[in-house]
Design brief:
heterodimer; A: about 280 residues; alpha/beta; Glycerol-3-phosphate (1)-acyltransferase; seven-stranded mixed beta sheet; two-stranded antiparallel ribbon; 9 strands; B: about 300 residues; seven-stranded parallel beta sheet; three-stranded mixed beta sheet; about 35% helix; about 20% strand
Chain lengths: ~280, ~300
């Protein structure tokens, strides 16, 4: 996509990001290019310059629109890590904001990878964009490989259940998939629970018109006060918890894994409670 | 007379590279329907069709220590029946002779293409990934069948050392396969908005891999990778070509028409390779064969132009 718009646009966006980030952070970010080969990509297609350009509008949202506050970034372990978060808000801006936090505020900066659905590579422009900013198809093999290269992966075990939930279920954690726990056990990766406060209210959905969604091939068709799920400028608070390490057999029965997953779930739940108590309002 | 190495498909471009690499250290007997242009003097050559009974004479009259099977046809214009017969019957006969005459080492040249480009694919497929290519492209079905025949042979004859090599796209100045032909176009098509990572291997490195495969301790299936992966756009830029981005819904029907009227030589399913990933993990080969490449990514890409 950026090839078409030209290097000029990409340069300008990258410049904007670097201005917003400041000189010191700009230098620190260069370390993220260390996995790139002579053609400027890592084995999965990630390119730092492209990512810095693409992150510009997200960084603006982070600073000016959602005015994100991140707590606990210093707890992030170096090396491989699985960030496990609650998911909400109809559109995955919670993922984007966590990504910006790790790139722009964590010390050292981290470029997180999140899992995308298998239909993303069928979309022109989007497929290339996602690869260049480090987001890859969520196969177990890809995840394992990235963790073994000491990357940081963000997962939302609630999946569509979380992001598409309706207003009455806000801040209630939906069912968690077990895949992330198997991955953590296989690769000996610490899990950092993350709670996102503020995404729930960005696009409050009163109704999900499932027949219409099915017709259009969308995962959901939410009806919000603004009509479309256009995000309102809620104040985002991100809480990063203490790293949790689990041991055990990755091929254990679901019931065994479920016990471990529940500890992560309750860690996130308590951070959600804390966050809701601490905040003064939805928009400030 | 020392045991010979039979090389099928020796008259092809990769075959000739292999012959040059191998003829000084091994006694080579080549089998191919096509004449071997530029044959080194110490290489015996039989212009034969593997499906014919005459081919067995090579095994009857000589002590054969190893077979390298590259005699697989890839011609999108050839009829499916002829293709199928040549590849599947030819391979079946060859493997029969190997078993009958106690050949100790059999190397079959397959391809990483057998996994098939797909949006579902992991970024690095290992040797146990399913061979899905035939789902979208029947032309690759033969290749998969040959790969499977070799597998069956491997399991049925544990005393014979069978190696199946699946290299990534082989490119070189004289190579005439789909990737090399595509990369030689001055204005190659791309599918607008798609820029998949691709893996290439220099023909000389591919030839050397075939030679390495003769080592007695190597057996089984191996993905063979080149110097890594790069976006397709980087390859085209390195070659100095200007791509023509074609919207993907239009590209396939359009190419179908062009192919039918012989204005293009790429059947539409080949477009999958410039849209979706079909990349492999070559670590098994790297570890077991101690694989060392001789050509960098830049050299590999540029070899298409004959650098």
């Amino acid at each position: 996509m950026f090839e078409g718009l030209g290097d000029k646009v990409r340069q300008r966006l990258k410049g904007w990001t670097e201005t917003m980030a400041g000189e010191e952070r700009k230098q620190e970010l260069q370390a993220l290019a260390r996995t790139e080969n002579e053609y400027g990509v890592d084995p999965f297609g990630f390119n730092l310059d492209y990512s810095l350009a693409a992150v510009a509008p997200l960084l603006w949202l982070y600073r000016k629109y959602f005015r994100v506050e991140a707590f606990g970034l210093e707890k992030l372990p170096k090396g491989r890590v699985l960030l496990v978060s609650n998911h909400s808000g109809q559109i995955p801006l919670d993922g984007a904001m966590i990504g910006v936090a790790l790139m722009m505020e964590a010390r050292p900066p981290r470029a997180i990878r999140s899992m995308v659905e298998k239909w993303v590579p069928t979309l022109p422009y989007i497929s290339t964009l996602f690869a260049r900013v480090g987001q890859i198809v969520g196969t177990p093999e890809n995840c394992r490989r990235l963790l073994e290269s000491d990357e940081a992966i963000l997962v939302f075990p609630e999946g569509a259940r979380g992001i598409a939930k309706l207003w009455p279920q806000r801040y209630q954690l939906q069912e968690f998939g077990l895949g992330f726990m198997r991955l953590a056990l296989e690769t000996n990766t610490p899990i950092v629970p993350v709670a996102v406060i503020g995404a729930e209210e960005q696009a409050p959905a009163l109704l999900d018109v499932k027949p219409l969604a099915k017709l259009l091939g969308f995962p959901a068709f939410p009806i919000t006060p603004t009509g479309l799920p256009f995000p309102l400028p809620t104040k985002y608070r991100l809480y990063f918890g203490d790293p949790m390490t689990f041991t055990g057999r990755p091929d254990d029965e679901d019931s065994e894994l479920d016990k471990k997953v529940r500890t992560v779930k309750s860690a996130i739940q308590s951070m959600i409670h804390q966050g809701l108590k601490e905040r003064r309002g939805i928009f400030w | 007379m020392r045991p010979a190495v039979v090389v099928t498909g020796i008259s092809g471009n990769l075959g000739r590279v292999l012959a040059k690499l191998l003829h000084k250290s091994e006694r080579i007997i080549g089998i191919d329907r096509r004449p071997f242009v530029g044959r080194p003097k110490d290489v015996e050559m039989y212009q034969l069709d593997l499906r014919k009974k005459k081919a067995e004479d090579v095994f009857r009259k000589n002590e054969i220590g190893a077979v390298i099977h590259m005699g697989i046809m890839h011609d999108p214009r050839m009829s499916e029946e002829e293709h199928h017969s040549f590849n599947v019957v030819g391979t079946t006969r060859l493997l029969e002779y190997c078993a009958k005459y106690g050949v100790k080492k059999v190397v079959v040249l397959s391809s990483a293409n057998v996994y098939g480009p797909s949006p579902d694919n992991s970024n690095f497929l290992t040797e146990d990934a399913p061979l899905m290519a035939a789902g979208r492209f029947s032309g690759v079905r033969d290749l998969i069948e040959v790969d499977m025949l070799a597998h069956g042979f491997f399991w049925r004859h544990p005393d014979i050392n069978t190696v199946i090599l699946r290299p990534v796209h082989i490119v070189g100045p004289t190579i005439k396969n789909a990737p090399s032909n595509y990369l030689r176009l001055r204005h190659p098509w791309t599918l607008a908005g798609f820029d998949p990572m691709v893996q290439l291997i220099h023909v000389q490195d591919a030839g050397r891999a075939l030679v390495e495969a003769l080592r007695p301790e190597l057996k089984g299936v191996y993905n063979v990778t080149g110097p890594g992966e790069v976006p397709l756009s980087a390859v085209l830029r390195e070659l100095g070509h200007t791509a023509i981005p074609v919207p993907h819904p239009v590209a396939r029907p359009l190419l179908g028409l062009l192919f039918k009227y012989r204005l293009a030589n790429f059947p539409p399913p080949e477009l999958d390779h410039i849209q979706f990933l079909c990349n492999v993990d070559g670590s098994r080969w790297q570890k077991e064969a101690g694989w060392k490449l001789r050509h960098s990514m830049r050299e590999t890409i540029r070899s298409v132009l004959g650098d």
